[in-house]
């Protein structure tokens, strides 16, 4: 082989090696166990969190609507209390206006009766004439010179409209307090019309607002027509000040949002039906939504915490699974390398089963490799034996053949007989070759047409491959000699092949009958060599050759262990 040819051959071998090497085909979307566990956690956790969040928001919206109705109801309740107090003042004025002392102009008596009526109330009553000068004031004793009346706007409107009027908030300098007036025109029976003015103080409504239950975070205030605070649930500091959150007049009633100084407020406005005032309840939207925001925050942080725990657990589980997978990978590599693999308990039952399967596969591979090596040695041994037999056949046939044609014919038949023995040996390798089948197969080529001229009888005996090959060659040579010189050469010859089993020894008997002794050649042929040498050496057989008057007889004794070595004994 030239150098170029060697290079080409080496390249071809390398290409063949690359082709035969296992290929790793990475499937699209192939990820580690950690990724799949994380995906499983997300698939389970995210929908639950999303559903919980949506449910929480929906419940919060429902709760907010309920709160809105509660805020409106609470504000309306305050407005009713204010209207009730003012209505009580109007009733007082109405009753007082019917006094005969007022009609008669007896202010001393009228003052006395008015003080008695207002004894349990923090209020004052004035009587103004048409020029709005004071005729009587329960704050001063009768006969005291009364000052010019202040804050007469409500009285002027009442006299002009002939209808009761409630004033806005004003500061009563005489009392040093914030107050308001309720003015009612009175048509006297004698003299000009007069106006009764009942003055009360803002602190009266402060008690009303403070005793009302309003939702946490909410405040309420009573404001007059100029948006001035009359009373507030937050305390008296706001009284007399403008309400700090401006709202349009269009917000006559109901629930709305107002933005003031970058802060969003929720406001409920309930106007008074009698006074022209308004009750306002308000709260920053942030404080109203704080419970929902806290719940959402708990949901988010709780979800994050649960997700963290789940991811941590998934990490450790994946670590355990990855360790088991790596161990299984090493087992598979040892299996591929033909090394011993021991089963190992894994943290996951299924992986333990895989480990046991790999160990079992390694054990079976070891056994299979041992069987293959045994078969290879057996094939080599049998090949050597067959070559030795063929060589002996060749040498002996050459010595006994006078012509090339005779040599070719004799050698061909002997090789054919050897081939038949080999076929039987291969087809019955596991259970052994049946001796009767072997005898019939080797005689078949030489068997005469009359079936009664061949007798084959004996118990069932199974032969191993080596003894079947040797014994088959011996029977073939005996049949060949019978065809040339013995029972098969004439028209009346008979061959009896029998065997018996006695004390673990097989007695094999080849007997030819009705054969003239003069036909038997004097020199030893190949058959004699096979019988004497191969049978004696290979099987340890004891041979006996007897020449009877009517034919030859071969008897040999072989131990049954020699014939059935390596197979089950079945007789």
Walk me through the structure.
The chain is of the alpha+beta class. Among the domains are: 97-198, 2-Layer Sandwich (Beta-Lactamase), CATH 3.30.450.20; 401-563, 2-Layer Sandwich (Heat Shock Protein 90), CATH 3.30.565. It is built from 14 helices and 18 strands. It has helices at residues 3-20, 33-96, 100-104, 107-117, 153-161, 203-211, 285-288, 290-336, 349-400, 404-427, 435-443, 465-484, 526-539, 560-563, and strands at residues 123-128, 134-137, 165-166, 170-172, 177-186, 194-201, 219-223, 229-232, 254-260, 263-271, 278-284, 433-434, 454-457, 462-463, 494-502, 505-513, 542-548, 551-559. Strands 1, 2, 3, 4, 5 and 6 form a 6-stranded antiparallel β-sheet that branches. β1 (123-128) and β2 (134-137) form a beta hairpin.
How would you summarize the topology of this molecule?
Blueprint: H1 3-20, H2 33-96, H3 100-104, H4 107-117, E1 123-128, E2 134-137, H5 153-161, E3 165-166, E4 170-172, E5 177-186, E6 194-201, H6 203-211, E7 219-223, E8 229-232, E9 254-260, E10 263-271, E11 278-284, H7 285-288, H8 290-336, H9 349-400, H10 404-427, E12 433-434, H11 435-443, E13 454-457, E14 462-463, H12 465-484, E15 494-502, E16 505-513, H13 526-539, E17 542-548, E18 551-559, H14 560-563
Helix pairs in contact: 2-8, 8-9, 9-10, 10-12, 11-12, 12-13
Short description:
The protein is α+β, with helices and mostly antiparallel strands and 571 residues long.
Keywords:
571 residues, alpha+beta, Beta-Lactamase, Heat Shock Protein 90, 6-stranded antiparallel β-sheet, 5-stranded antiparallel β-sheet, 14 helices, 18 strands, 19% strand, disordered N terminus, transmembrane helix, histidine kinase, transmembrane, ATP-binding
């Amino acid at each position: 082989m030239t150098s170029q040819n060697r290079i080409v051959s080496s390249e071809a071998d390398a290409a063949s090696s690359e082709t035969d090497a296992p290929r790793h085909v990475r499937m699209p979307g192939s990820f580690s166990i950690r990724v799949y566990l994380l995906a499983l956690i997300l698939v389970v956790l995210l929908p639950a969190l999303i559903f919980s969040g949506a449910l929480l928001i929906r419940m919060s919206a429902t709760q907010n609507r309920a709160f809105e109705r509660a805020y409106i109801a609470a504000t309306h309740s305050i407005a009713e209390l204010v209207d009730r107090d003012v209505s009580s003042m109007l009733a007082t004025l109405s009753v007082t206006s019917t006094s005969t002392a007022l009609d008669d102009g007896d202010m001393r008596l009228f003052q006395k009766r008015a003080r008695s009526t207002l004894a349990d109330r923090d209020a004052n009553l004035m009587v103004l004439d048409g020029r709005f000068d004071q005729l009587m004031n329960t704050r001063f004793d009768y006969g005291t010179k009364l000052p010019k009346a202040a804050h007469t706007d409500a009285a002027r409107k009442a006299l002009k409209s002939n209808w009761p009027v409630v004033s806005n908030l004003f500061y009563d300098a005489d009392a040093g307090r914030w107050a308001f007036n309720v003015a009612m025109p009175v048509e006297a029976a004698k003299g000009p019309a007069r106006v009764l003015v009942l003055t009360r103080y803002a602190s009266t409504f402060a008690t009303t607002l403070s005793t009302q239950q309003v939702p946490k975070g909410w405040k309420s205030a009573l404001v007059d027509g100029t948006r001035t605070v009359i009373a507030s649930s937050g305390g008296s500091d706001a009284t007399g000040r403008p309400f700090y959150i401006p709202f349009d007049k269009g917000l006559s009633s109901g629930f709305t949002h107002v933005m003031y100084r970058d802060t969003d407020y929720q406001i409920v406005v309930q106007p008074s039906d009698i006074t022209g005032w308004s009750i306002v309840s308000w709260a920053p939207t942030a404080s109203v939504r704080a419970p929902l925001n806290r719940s959402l925050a708990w949901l988010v942080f709780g979800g994050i915490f649960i997700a963290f725990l789940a991811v941590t657990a998934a990490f450790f589980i994946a670590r355990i699974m990855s360790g088991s997978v790596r161990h299984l990978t090493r087992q598979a590599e040892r299996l591929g390398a033909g090394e011993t693999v021991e089963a190992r308990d894994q943290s996951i039952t299924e992986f333990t089963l895989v480990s046991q399967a790999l160990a079992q596969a390694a054990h079976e591979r070891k056994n299979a490799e041992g069987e293959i090596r045994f078969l290879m040695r057996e094939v080599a041994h049998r090949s050597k034996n067959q070559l030795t037999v063929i060589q002996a056949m060749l040498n002996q046939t050459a010595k006994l053949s006078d012509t090339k044609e005779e040599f070719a014919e004799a050698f061909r038949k002997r090789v054919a007989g050897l081939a038949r023995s080999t076929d039987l040996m291969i087809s019955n390798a596991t259970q052994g070759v049946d001796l009767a089948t072997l005898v019939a197969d080797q005689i078949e080529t030489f068997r005469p047409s009359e079936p009664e001229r061949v007798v084959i009888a004996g118990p069932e005996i199974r032969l191993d491959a080596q003894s079947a090959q040797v014994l088959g060659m011996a029977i073939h040579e005996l049949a060949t000699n019978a065809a040339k010189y013995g029972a098969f050469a004439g028209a009346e010859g008979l061959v009896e092949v029998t065997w018996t089993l006695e004390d673990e020894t097989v007695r094999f008997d080849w007997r030819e009958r009705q054969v003239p002794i003069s036909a038997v050649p004097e020199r030893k042929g190949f058959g004699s060599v096979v019988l004497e040498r191969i049978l004696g050496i290979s099987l340890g057989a004891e041979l006996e050759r007897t020449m009877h008057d009517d034919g030859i007889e071969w008897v040999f004794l072989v131990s049954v262990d020699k014939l059935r070595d390596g197979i089950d004994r079945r007789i």
